[in-house]
Amino acid sequence: MTLPSTGPISFSQLRDEFGGSGPISIGGLRNAAPGLPASGPISMGDFRGKSAETISVTDRTISGFNNAGISVGVIFRTDGIIQRWSSTNGPNDILENWVTPTSAAPSDYQIRASTTGGSPPDGGSSLNTWVPLSSQRTWSRSSSSGTVTSTILIEIRKGTGPVLESGSITISANGGTGGGGIDPT
């Protein structure tokens, strides 16, 4: 859980957030979260709003093509990983961690996907509602002829707290033109 962004922070809060037992030294937590001083003075105030967990959703395009038709999509896995998948001729690449460290997943994280361009995804998880990441979440597009595209805004929060990270993912399936494969982007 993210430390308070205002007010006092206690050593027990630091221990709860960053782990450890017994006495805690703030100097020993320099690399515990992004934005902490790497050297020089460090104070309790430097920890305001910090978390041991980092959430990441990179803007990207996921596309695939195959003359015989194709389904292509994105998976937010319960082990903290974002994966690309394709029904044919393509690697199911690991794209990035949605939470670092991945051992923090799924905890009480929630995800929401909203269509921001093209038509809504034709396969996968709910749209426009928060759903827990304690189950794998997938959004996809399928085509047997021509190109279909969806752009979705992905938002992640912890519990009912504020959005911690968001990113735009465009999913494009082209069934009926080209050879076969999946776009490496």
Protein model, in words:
This protein has 185 residues and is mainly beta. It folds into 2 domains: 11-47, no CATH class; 54-182, Immunoglobulin-like (Sandwich). The chain is built from 1 helix and 13 strands, in the order H-E-E-E-E-E-E-E-E-E-E-E-E-E. The strands form 3 sheets. The protein has a 6-stranded mixed beta sheet, with no helix packed on it. The protein has a 5-stranded antiparallel beta sheet with strand order 5-4-3-10-8, with no helix packed on it.
Topology summary:
Layout: H1 11-18, E1 54-55, E2 60-66, E3 70-76, E4 81-86, E5 94-97, E6 99-100, E7 109-118, E8 123-124, E9 131-132, E10 137-143, E11 146-158, E12 163-175, E13 180-182
Parallel strand pairs: 2-12
Antiparallel strand pairs: 1-6, 2-13, 3-4, 3-10, 4-5, 7-9, 7-11, 8-10, 11-12
Short structural summary:
The chain is built from 1 helix and 13 strands. The protein has one helix at 11-18; strands at 54-55, 60-66, 70-76, 81-86, 94-97, 99-100, 109-118, 123-124, 131-132, 137-143, 146-158, 163-175, 180-182.
Q: How would you describe this structure in keywords?
A:
185 residues; 4% helix; Immunoglobulin-like; elongated; mainly beta; 5-stranded antiparallel beta sheet; 6-stranded mixed beta sheet
Percent in strands: 35-45%
Looking at the structure, the CATH topology of the largest domain is: Immunoglobulin-like
Query: What CATH architecture of the largest domain would you give?
Result: Sandwich
The total count of strands amounts to: 13
Number of helices: 1
CATH class of the largest domain: Mainly Beta
> What does the oligomeric state look like here?
single chain
The radius of gyration is 20 Å
Please give the alpha-carbon distance between the first and last residues: 33 Å
pLDDT < 50 runs, ≥5 residues: none
Numbering strands along the chain, what is their spatial order in the largest sheet?
A: 9-7-11-12-2-13
N-to-C SSE series? HEEEEEEEEEEEEE
Helix content: under 10%
- What's the overall geometry? elongated
Largest sheet descriptor: 6 strands, mixed
Given helix and strand content, the structural type is mainly beta
Q: What average pLDDT do the residues reach?
A: 88
* Total count of domains: 2
